[in-house]
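Bench log. Compound arrived from synthesis this morning; before running ITC I wanted a structural hypothesis for how zinc ion sits in the protein. Inputs:
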Amino acid sequence: MLAGVKTGQITKDAADAVVVLHFEKENEGRDDAPEIRNALKRAEWTGEKSNLVETFRANGEREQRLLIAGLGAREKFNAETLRDVSAAVGRRLAAAKAETVFVDIAALFDAETLPEKLTADGQAWGESLGLLTWEGKAFAGSATNIKPKPELTVSSGNPAFDEGIADGLLLAESVNFARSLSQTPPNVATPLWMAEQAQKLSKLTGLQCRILQGEELETERLQGLVTVGKASEHPPCLIRLAYTPEKPTGDPPVVILGKTITYDTGGLSLKVNNGMVGMKRDKDGGCAVLGTMHAVATLIKPDVPVIGLLVAAENCVSDNSMRPDDVITYRNGVTVEITNTDAEGRLVLADGLCWACEVEKARAIVDLATLTGGVVTALGSTFAGLFCDDDALRADLEAASDSSGERIWRLPLHAEYREMLKSPVADIINSNPNRKAHPIQGAAFLEHFVTEGTPWAHIDIAGVHAVDADAGAFIKGPTGWGVRLLAAWLARQTSSI
Ligand code: BES
Ligand code: ZN
Ligand code: ZN
């Protein structure tokens, strides 16, 4: 939609377009230009969120576009309002081929407006504009005619808001990076291709990168990766990215872990009908972890160490497939009877959780995974499912969710769900064939691989990692869900030492 967006010195007079933010039912008492006052009298103006009314004013030789953008009711306003309005405005400006825009944010001021609040508002504004620059057409060939798109320069004239816009644009780059990885087809995006992308990121940003593959997976007893990945000609790997703060504190790291199944056929428990289409996006937990590590290195720079782990494998069918009835032993000693090879995400995540606890000695772990179709049935695309019984971690994630706009809804963990996973031959099965509480079964399975006392959250993103139609700042396709939530969460982390 937009080729690119940047901030710059644009005055109100010189801009191609001026966007005037306006709350509902606040037409009076403002110092608006006559053209705007007239436009506000038109029936099409409701002031509702994202209601846009356009007018023009003579400006020397040319006409200047004035775009009045509704913010809805002042009482309901928050950063998410600005994300929605900015997306609507950005789409309109792209269609109008505007190249410079001035945003009049007078409506956002009240008696106690602090610069930090304006920076947060600016970030929300910049995020959506940045997300609109993603097209996902890296694989367009000679039969596609890609039209040139405008480059947009934006300013509000307010340093705090403009600084926020710049931050938002940077964060959107991290989200767009995750989206581009998700979009890459599975014949290209193999586990080792994902590892190469992590290596490239590390060279670009100074993060440390380590890849464990082949024999090393065996010696480290990462049995989930070995088992799930063995049917594919594209071998599995564990990808580890490490961020060290400028002033190392000796704190244990926080670990973010992503399910990275580069393609999920279901394995021998093969997916049927159309259930396989789109399973290139079964790596989106890992894509979001890479996107977040990009944000950590370029924007957030927290004062605690952060480790990003991707458990990468392809769930394929061959004469070397894992079978329903196989039993495997994890590095923490837990044995698993595989009852369904399509419940493969938890098998590889278990390795990541063992590693995070035992090797990294994580002070907290958050995993992101497109784990179950059941969470889509339960929560649709509105909320991701959150499993977290650690009150402090949950409160922190909920605060990050509020500020980032990526919504999470708590689902329960309980000993009774663990009962459902008892195996007659091993410790646990990977999936109960009953049709009960599948997202919770997934979380209850993962719980077995987290050391007692380690704060842990599992987020099932199967409903939110992609949208099936254009929505807000997104076009149909991947959303990079999790980058903004985890970035906001990591920005809140402070050294405990
Ligand atoms: N990758 C799927 C889950 C999924 C479904 C992601 C729809 C995105 C959209 C996962 O590996 C899977 O197949 N889960 C099974 C679990 C079942 C076998 C216990 C499911 O949800 O049906
Ligand atoms: Zn599966
Ligand atoms: Zn899967």
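What the model suggests: The pocket of zinc ion (ligand 2) is lined by residues 264, 266, 342, 344 (CB under 6 Å). The CA atoms of residues 180 and 264 lie 19 Å apart.
ITC booked for Thursday regardless.
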